[in-house]
TrEMBL record:
The chain crosses the membrane at residues 47-66, 112-131, 143-163, 175-196, 208-233, 254-282, 332-357, 378-397, 409-432. The lineage of its organism: Bacteria, Bacillati, Actinomycetota, Actinomycetes, Streptosporangiales. Signal peptide: none annotated. It comes from Microbispora bryophytorum subsp. camponoti. Residues 14-240 form the Cytochrome b/b6 N-terminal region profile domain. This is Cytochrome bc1 complex cytochrome b subunit.
Length: 546
């Protein structure tokens, strides 16, 4: 019989010292057994978090050698093709990091890939939260924090992209300057604040550097911390299933299961990003040369997260408003203002307001800890896919010159195709997604009513053959039966509520009835039951009439 394990005296003494002064023992005991559900989609947010940690570590390494100065020097480093070329200290230090600092090029490329994975992970995480309705009460504040983090990350990427001062980043910086100076009223002031004078000025690199390594990372770090604290305080969402309700969480405890999986997943994320940094070259600044306002490289493309702005600028017609005749002071260049403000405004503002608009439409003030399957709220899923299509069209036509050159299509044709698709593609995505969601709901109803294929063939008395269906497994059945109807505003035909009597109230009611309700009624019976068969037929008939 083994003796009970004891804590070493030195460790016990230090632990008691901290516990007496910080109360850490009770905090750890209370939180170490917190339960986290197990589903692959919950790892999307962790990808973004781990990429951010990698960004902080690699960015700290790069600050030791990068010189944020636009002062001109003659390059005399190890990269022979550029020896004797006049360039900025920022570009020269980028070359030094790439060719003279041990491991510098690897860290540079890991940093760049981590930035791409960070933003892509946040986008995927935001889509997961939106499609499953995980933004609903009590998580509206955390959703808003996530939207702000994503918005700040876009500007963080822009400032970092511009720091090397090579010809490619300089082209992107020139586009940024054109957008900034085109903004009404504040454009000129912002331009002088960023560039320190007429473009290109002499201060933009140093100012972007301060913003990139201090201001924006500090804001992101604070918001990520608040995001994680709120997530920890609230119950984690989970998908419907056996034993899962709005009042519990089914999964594994934080220690040791979740910690072990998270540690392994961090190492996996780091390994993937390190492999990309090792084998997939990105941003070879030495090939572009130093930036000069008089030069431009063909086929210049920004990173993917800013391509939507490039696409909006390229397909926007050359419209402008002249308030004071032909005077420059009264001209508002809509060809710049609309692409700069409208696409990002539609997506970001729409994301921020959606939880409150949905609650206004449905009148649903309940707490939700069970996530929706995207198919079970077809209008929400269709709206999300329409936004994805809108972003995708702008992203695609940010390279309309590349499309024209490679597919031998005139630039005029690709530009007009983008102008048409930016309106048509979201509408098609909405309609197609809505029908797909209804089809998937009918498929779920068929599984509950008919059961699943058993592989057993039965011969009927008349000589025919049918496959025997069996009841689905309990966990699958519980998952399918976890569907809830989208709430609809209550309405009394005789005496409408006070808030629904005016024109706005009637519009709200009509929108609520269209958005909510049961599109495909669920099955109450079990496979081969008469109730199940009747419910299936009724659901299919009702769905086909919508």
């Amino acid at each position: 019989m083994s003796e009970p394990r004891t804590v070493p005296e030195r460790i016990a003494g230090q632990a008691t010292f901290l516990d007496d002064r910080l109360g850490a023992g009770s905090f750890v005991r209370r939180n170490i057994r917190k339960v986290f559900p197990d589903h692959w989609s919950f790892l999307l947010g962790e990808i973004a978090l781990y990429s951010f940690v990698i960004l902080l570590l690699t960015g700290t390494f790069l600050t030791f050698w990068f010189k944020p100065s636009m002062g001109e020097i003659v390059y005399n480093g190890t990269y022979a093709p550029l020896k004797g070329v006049t360039m900025s200290e920022a570009y020269a230090s980028s070359l030094q990091i790439s060719f003279e600092v041990r491991g510098g090029l690897l860290i540079r490329q890991i940093h760049h890939w981590a930035a791409l994975v960070f933003i892509a992970g946040m986008m995927a995480h935001a889509l997961r939260v939106f499609f499953t309705g995980a933004y609903r009460k009590p998580r509206e504040l955390n959703w808003l924090i996530g939207v702000v983090i994503l918005s700040i990350a876009l500007f963080e990427g822009l400032t970092g992209y511009s720091l090397p001062d090579d010809l490619l980043s300089g082209a992107g910086l020139r586009v940024t300057q054109g957008v900034v100076i085109g903004l009404p009223v504040v454009g000129t002031y912002l331009n002088f604040f960023l560039f320190g004078g007429e473009y290109p000025g002499g201060d933009v690199i140093s100012r972007f550097y301060s913003i990139h390594i201090l201001l924006l990372p500090g804001l992101i770090l604070a918001l990520v911390t608040a995001h994680l604290i709120l997530m920890w305080m609230q119950k984690h969402t989970q998908f419907p299933g056996k034993g899962r309700t709005n009042r519990n969480v089914v999964g594994a405890p934080f220690y040791p299961a979740f910690m072990a999986k998270s540690g392994a997943f961090f190492l996996f994320t780091f390994a993937v990003i390190a492999a990309l940094g090792t084998f997939a070259q990105i941003n070879p600044v030495w090939l572009y040369g130093p930036y000069s306002p008089a030069d431009i490289s063909a086929g210049s493309q920004p990173d993917f997260y800013l391509a939507f702005l490039e696409g909006a600028l390229r397909i926007m017609p050359a419209w402008e408003i002249n308030l004071l005749g032909a005077s420059q002071a009264g001209t508002i260049p809509l060809s710049v203002v609309i692409p700069a403000l409208v696409p990002l405004g539609i997506i970001v503002v729409g994301m921020a307001l959606y939880p409150f608009l949905e609650r206004w439409l449905t009148g649903d003030n309940r707490e939700h800890h069970l996530a929706d399957r995207p198919r079970n709220n077809p209008h929400r899923t269709s709206i999300g896919m329409a936004a994805v299509a809108f972003y995708g069209v702008l992203w695609l036509f940010g390279g309309n010159d590349i499309i024209s050159a490679n597919f031998r299509i005139s630039l005029y044709t690709t530009t007009w195709a983008g102008r048409i698709l930016v309106f048509v593609a979201p509408a098609l995505a909405y309609a197609i997604t809505y029908r797909v969601c209804l089809g998937l709901q009918r498929s779920d109803v068929a599984v509950l009513a008919h059961g699943v294929e058993s592989g057993v063939i039965k011969r009927l008395p008349n000589g025919g053959y049918v496959e025997v269906h069996s009841r689905p497994p309990e966990d699958i059945e519980a998952h399918l039966r976890g569907k809830e109807a989208v709430p609809v505003l209550p309405y009394d035909e005789t005496v409408p509520p006070k808030g629904l009597r005016g024109p706005l109230g009637r519009l709200r009611l009509r929108m609520s009835r269209a958005y909510g309700g049961e599109k495909v009624p669920p099955v109450n019976g079990h496979p081969h039951d008469e109730d199940g068969q009747a419910a299936l037929q009724e659901g299919q008939n009702r769905a086909l009439t919508r």
